[in-house]
Amino acid sequence: MARRPGPVTRERRLQAVSAYLDKPDALAAEFAAGETTQRIRTFSQAAPDDLVAALDLLGRVKGAAIVVHGPRGCAAALVGAAPLAHWAVTGLDQRDTIMGSEGVVERAVLALVRRHKPWAVFVVTTPVVAINSDDARDTVLSLTDELGIPVQLVRTDGFKSRVAATGFDAACLALLNLVPAVAEATQDDLVNLVARDAAGARAAAELLADLGLDVNVLPAGADAEGFARSARARLSICIDPDATTAFAAGMEAAHGVPNLRASLPIGLAATRRWVDSVAAAVRRPDSGSLGETRVAPPHQPVIPGEGPPSTPLSQPAPQGVDGAPAPGMTDGIRVHLALPPDVAFAAADLVTELGGTVAGLSVTHVDSSHSEALGAFIRSHPGVTLHVAAGQPFELVNLLAKQHPDLFVGTPELAALAATAGIPAVGLTSAALIGWRGAARLAERAQAALRNSAFVRRLSAAPSPYAAGWLRRSADWHVKQEVR
């Protein structure tokens, strides 16, 4: 039987770029022209691959099981992740890699099923399997018939794509196969909240409380019932677009469940727009006022002081988590953001709402799905440098040393890196920025970080892990245009 190809890489499907440092105007022009110039790194410190991304998403499916088909080290991403899915690794050694590993996948799947009774199994192939052309497809097909549960093959190889998010696409293809082919009639009050992070889904579901909707969260924390219900939903709403848009788009194509394309609810203005767009899509009554009631606690006015709800959000401060008005950032504070692409573009507008300015933006990758957000970012934040890199801390340290921002806001691991460089830093997950609570949370933590400057001064006193010669070069010294 012919081997099926894996998912189309993000570079081919969406013209994704994983290396860039410059003003974003040139990149936006390339997306507008329909052809991007690929950049490569002649040196890469570290970078996650598609296997890590696929395991991250699959591990969030409750009651499922994962067999990582490869050497033991290929399952390292699951060790510290505490996945909801049970898992095992086939543990290929040198002999298996050279002579073949017939039977090892079947034994691993059967052992997991006997011990944990999962409702679905994912067999994830790894770079080693991709190199030796070991094909587990026939085994997977026979096990599906034998066990009476879905056994899905997920192909990753670690070297066809430089964008780890290609692994999310591979996982989404397998997850779509868990949705029943024939569904019952549409349930008018049911919506799919498509999320990688359960915390982000909870924050978004809270915003929809006044709409009276039955919210079905998946794949994060979903079980067999959640996937079975998903095809009956009136629409799907992505909270983690970079990871889950392929799933929502597949639901639309295969099951006729519309995918609501709306900017993330990050910042007060964006949160109002998001709630109103959902209300309009499901045709709930009084949709025009619902966004006003869900961006702050129901007993709190959205805007402190007097004035109609349409007062510009750049003037008042958002409400605090404890009900008190949350302080905004000090006017003129220069902030460097380092977050996943969709979240970063939305957070840039939140920084402006809070009275700060964006000094720089670091994202893991940019592709054509971000074209609209990239254009809006250029218009709202002209001249700001865009840094595209995943797993390149030396580039970020170099860039921050030249920018000298007043504050760094990014993922926790990058915030720790910025703090050791002497920059007050706030570490937040993407989920922590969603909704009115996210706006208040960022404002409060930003002020706390700015007040505690002695902490980062002490951290920065330690010797730098990077030689002075490295830091004297430009941050994009190793980024070159690909020669074909």
| Helical fraction | 40-55%
- What fraction strand? 5-15%
For the sheet with most strands, the description reads: 6 strands, mixed
How far the N terminus sits from the C terminus, by CA atoms, comes to 34 Å
Radius of gyration: 23 Å
Overall 3D form? globular
Strand order of the largest sheet: 1-13-12-11-14-15
Instruction: Please give the count of helices.
Output: 21
Task: Work out the number of β strands.
Answer: 16
Question: Could you please describe the fold and organization of this structure?
Answer:
Strand 3, helix 4 and strand 4 form a beta-alpha-beta unit. The chain has a 6-stranded mixed β-sheet, with helices on both faces. A 4-stranded parallel β-sheet has the order 4-3-5-6, with helices on both faces. The protein is an alpha/beta fold and 484 residues long. Helix 3 runs parallel beside helix 9. The chain is built from 21 helices and 16 strands.
Task: Please summarize what this structure is.
It contains 21 helices and 16 strands. It has 484 residues and is an alpha/beta fold.
How are the secondary structure elements laid out?
Elements: H1 10-14, E1 20-22, H2 25-33, E2 39-41, H3 50-58, E3 65-69, H4 76-79, E4 86-89, H5 94-99, H6 104-116, E5 121-125, H7 127-132, H8 137-147, E6 151-155, H9 166-176, E7 190-195, H10 198-207, E8 214-219, H11 224-230, E9 235-238, H12 241-255, E10 259-260, H13 268-282, H14 287-294, E11 334-338, H15 341-353, E12 357-363, H16 371-380, E13 385-388, H17 393-403, E14 407-410, H18 412-420, E15 425-427, H19 435-451, H20 453-460, H21 468-472, E16 479-481
